[in-house]
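dumping this here before i forget
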Amino acid sequence: MIMLAVGLLLSLVLCLLFGVPYIDFLKKKTIGQYVLDLAPEAHAKKQGTPTTGGVFIIAAIIISSIITLFMAQQMGNSAWIILITLVFMAFAGLQDDYLKIKGKENKGLSPRGKLIRQILIALIPTIYSMQLYDNVITLGSRSFDIGILYPILAVFVITGASNAYNLTDGLDGLAASTGIPAFLACGVLAFMSGHTDVAIISLTVVGALLGFLKYNKPKAQVFMGDTGSLALGGLLGSLAVVGRFELLLAVFGGIFVMETLSVMVQVTSFKLTGKRVFKMAPIHHHFELCGHSEKRIVTEFAVVSLILSVIAIAVYLYFKQV
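structure:
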């Protein structure tokens, strides 16, 4: 339990320390965000805000995780697999950000190119988990052998979480504020199920996101970019797969599921009927166009994320006893 607190605090401090020089570097190199033309008008003022802040988030997570895991004598294969997956996802996101910055528009990797990268990277923890658990998933004390469906589910969970977190990163502080309860739930679930290494990494993410909020809260000094959102989403999915609580991810990651579904519903409706269900998708932009302030949306989404995280833990405890 002490090591969980150590990981969180160390990551928090490192993220705060890395933030200032990295943001200064981005400003000097004029590495800023290019706002999508279709974005709400209020977002025009965000043009040029430094991006790729995910670099110092990921750095804080990796360094604090390795130090804490070694201190706790928990630096095993599972931890390495999770951290390696995180690094590869971060590089995929950084490539996407680089292309946007280079092209001076909000167009990076093609959707197909991005998905291919995510699937290939997701295979790393998927294959590892198959070697450890065969094709079995768990829910509390119950186990289910789903056969050949397991690798499909695992890859879907990781790539889906990566894209969902990426979609949620659309308002100042939103991805970080909703991510904190989700990764905290990861830590609690992993700790209760005996995956201490997964729990430690989860708590370092909580610390890093708390530190990042200092720079990302309205009005944001820096955006995490795809470097951060793709990587953190992929990490969320990887933690769920290796920690064996894949099914509960749909609960404590409910905000990210909602954001993704809003896009799917919007696209499907427009293609079939020519009409839009929401004023704009993802759904946080719908609320924004309905007159809600960014701060209010972020606060409400964070509270919902916290409630869903508590529900996920309660569901785990219920199935642990039955």
